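For consistency, the fold was encoded as C-alpha coordinates, as this record shows:
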Amino acid sequence: MTEITVKVNGKTYTRDVEPRTLLVHFLRDGLGLTGTNIGCDTSQCGACTIHMDGMSVKSCTTLAVQADGSEITTIEGLASNGKLHPMQQAFWDNHGLQCGYCTPGMIMAATKLVENNPNINEAEIRHGLEGNICRCTGYDNIVKAVKAAAAEMAGGK
Protein backbone atom coordinates (compact mmCIF):
# COMPACT_ATOMS: atom_id res chain seq x y z
CA MET A 1 0.00 0.00 0.00
CA THR A 2 1.08 3.54 -0.70
CA GLU A 3 -0.19 6.59 1.14
CA ILE A 4 -1.40 9.48 -1.00
CA THR A 5 -2.82 12.87 -0.16
CA VAL A 6 -5.05 14.65 -2.65
CA LYS A 7 -7.32 17.65 -2.53
CA VAL A 8 -10.59 16.75 -4.23
CA ASN A 9 -13.33 19.34 -4.69
CA GLY A 10 -11.74 21.49 -2.00
CA LYS A 11 -11.38 18.75 0.63
CA THR A 12 -8.08 17.05 1.50
CA TYR A 13 -7.96 13.26 1.71
CA THR A 14 -5.13 11.00 2.84
CA ARG A 15 -5.61 7.36 1.97
CA ASP A 16 -3.65 4.16 1.50
CA VAL A 17 -4.00 2.81 -2.04
CA GLU A 18 -2.68 -0.14 -3.96
CA PRO A 19 -0.03 1.22 -6.35
CA ARG A 20 -1.98 -0.18 -9.33
CA THR A 21 -5.28 1.55 -8.41
CA LEU A 22 -6.58 3.74 -11.19
CA LEU A 23 -7.57 7.27 -10.22
CA VAL A 24 -11.11 6.71 -11.49
CA HIS A 25 -11.52 3.77 -9.09
CA PHE A 26 -10.01 5.75 -6.22
CA LEU A 27 -12.50 8.58 -6.84
CA ARG A 28 -15.51 6.29 -7.26
CA ASP A 29 -14.78 3.51 -4.79
CA GLY A 30 -12.45 5.24 -2.34
CA LEU A 31 -14.17 8.60 -2.08
CA GLY A 32 -17.70 7.78 -3.27
CA LEU A 33 -17.60 10.34 -6.09
CA THR A 34 -19.53 8.32 -8.64
CA GLY A 35 -20.13 11.16 -11.11
CA THR A 36 -16.84 10.25 -12.78
CA ASN A 37 -17.84 7.37 -15.04
CA ILE A 38 -15.90 4.40 -16.35
CA GLY A 39 -16.57 3.89 -20.02
CA CYS A 40 -13.68 2.11 -21.65
CA ASP A 41 -10.56 1.91 -19.42
CA THR A 42 -8.45 2.88 -22.44
CA SER A 43 -8.89 6.70 -22.51
CA GLN A 44 -10.88 6.48 -25.74
CA CYS A 45 -14.30 7.67 -24.54
CA GLY A 46 -13.61 10.47 -22.04
CA ALA A 47 -16.40 9.51 -19.60
CA CYS A 48 -13.82 9.62 -16.79
CA THR A 49 -12.52 13.15 -17.50
CA ILE A 50 -11.66 15.24 -14.44
CA HIS A 51 -9.51 18.30 -13.77
CA MET A 52 -6.18 17.64 -12.10
CA ASP A 53 -3.82 20.50 -11.31
CA GLY A 54 -5.62 22.71 -13.82
CA MET A 55 -5.59 20.22 -16.68
CA SER A 56 -8.26 18.02 -18.20
CA VAL A 57 -7.24 14.41 -17.42
CA LYS A 58 -8.73 11.03 -18.24
CA SER A 59 -8.72 9.31 -14.87
CA CYS A 60 -9.05 5.76 -16.26
CA THR A 61 -5.43 5.78 -17.41
CA THR A 62 -3.98 7.72 -14.48
CA LEU A 63 -2.84 5.91 -11.37
CA ALA A 64 -4.04 7.22 -8.03
CA VAL A 65 -0.41 7.38 -6.85
CA GLN A 66 0.32 9.76 -9.75
CA ALA A 67 -2.24 12.14 -8.25
CA ASP A 68 -0.43 12.34 -4.90
CA GLY A 69 -0.18 16.01 -3.92
CA SER A 70 -2.58 17.08 -6.67
CA GLU A 71 -5.69 19.20 -6.65
CA ILE A 72 -8.60 17.50 -8.38
CA THR A 73 -12.04 18.67 -9.41
CA THR A 74 -14.72 16.17 -10.36
CA ILE A 75 -18.17 16.86 -11.77
CA GLU A 76 -19.44 16.96 -8.16
CA GLY A 77 -17.13 19.89 -7.43
CA LEU A 78 -17.94 21.99 -10.49
CA ALA A 79 -21.10 23.59 -9.10
CA SER A 80 -20.70 26.06 -6.28
CA ASN A 81 -23.04 27.17 -3.50
CA GLY A 82 -25.85 25.08 -4.96
CA LYS A 83 -25.62 26.81 -8.34
CA LEU A 84 -24.69 24.87 -11.45
CA HIS A 85 -21.51 25.86 -13.26
CA PRO A 86 -22.32 27.72 -16.52
CA MET A 87 -21.26 24.64 -18.51
CA GLN A 88 -23.57 22.39 -16.53
CA GLN A 89 -26.43 24.85 -16.94
CA ALA A 90 -25.78 25.20 -20.67
CA PHE A 91 -25.90 21.42 -21.15
CA TRP A 92 -29.23 21.41 -19.32
CA ASP A 93 -30.65 24.41 -21.20
CA ASN A 94 -29.49 23.24 -24.64
CA HIS A 95 -30.32 19.54 -24.25
CA GLY A 96 -26.66 18.59 -24.58
CA LEU A 97 -27.29 15.12 -23.21
CA GLN A 98 -29.49 12.11 -23.69
CA CYS A 99 -28.65 9.09 -21.55
CA GLY A 100 -26.19 11.20 -19.55
CA TYR A 101 -23.43 8.63 -19.22
CA CYS A 102 -20.82 10.68 -21.11
CA THR A 103 -22.13 13.99 -19.77
CA PRO A 104 -19.89 14.43 -16.69
CA GLY A 105 -16.73 13.79 -18.69
CA MET A 106 -17.99 15.89 -21.59
CA ILE A 107 -18.77 18.80 -19.25
CA MET A 108 -15.38 18.55 -17.55
CA ALA A 109 -13.51 18.47 -20.88
CA ALA A 110 -15.62 21.30 -22.32
CA THR A 111 -15.13 23.48 -19.24
CA LYS A 112 -11.35 23.28 -19.48
CA LEU A 113 -11.55 23.77 -23.26
CA VAL A 114 -13.46 27.04 -22.82
CA GLU A 115 -11.27 28.20 -19.93
CA ASN A 116 -8.25 27.82 -22.21
CA ASN A 117 -9.97 29.46 -25.21
CA PRO A 118 -12.80 31.82 -24.17
CA ASN A 119 -13.51 32.88 -27.77
CA ILE A 120 -13.79 29.31 -29.02
CA ASN A 121 -15.58 28.65 -32.30
CA GLU A 122 -17.57 25.62 -33.44
CA ALA A 123 -14.68 23.95 -35.27
CA GLU A 124 -12.44 24.35 -32.21
CA ILE A 125 -15.15 22.89 -29.96
CA ARG A 126 -15.61 19.86 -32.20
CA HIS A 127 -11.85 19.34 -32.43
CA GLY A 128 -11.33 19.87 -28.70
CA LEU A 129 -13.98 17.32 -27.77
CA GLU A 130 -12.73 14.61 -30.14
CA GLY A 131 -11.48 12.61 -27.15
CA ASN A 132 -14.98 12.42 -25.65
CA ILE A 133 -17.46 10.06 -27.23
CA CYS A 134 -21.23 10.33 -26.99
CA ARG A 135 -23.11 7.37 -28.37
CA CYS A 136 -26.57 8.96 -28.09
CA THR A 137 -26.47 12.46 -29.55
CA GLY A 138 -25.41 13.90 -32.88
CA TYR A 139 -23.15 16.32 -30.95
CA ASP A 140 -25.02 19.36 -32.31
CA ASN A 141 -26.65 20.18 -28.97
CA ILE A 142 -23.38 19.51 -27.16
CA VAL A 143 -21.62 22.04 -29.39
CA LYS A 144 -24.53 24.46 -28.92
CA ALA A 145 -24.24 24.03 -25.14
CA VAL A 146 -20.48 24.64 -25.15
CA LYS A 147 -20.94 27.79 -27.24
CA ALA A 148 -23.62 29.06 -24.86
CA ALA A 149 -21.46 28.30 -21.84
CA ALA A 150 -18.48 30.03 -23.44
CA ALA A 151 -20.56 33.17 -23.88
CA GLU A 152 -21.76 32.97 -20.28
CA MET A 153 -18.29 32.27 -18.90
CA ALA A 154 -16.95 35.27 -20.85
CA GLY A 155 -19.53 37.48 -19.17
CA GLY A 156 -22.30 37.22 -21.75
CA LYS A 157 -20.26 38.86 -24.46
User: Anything to note?
Assistant: Helices lie at 23-30, 86-93, 103-116, 122-128, 140-153. The mean pLDDT is 94.
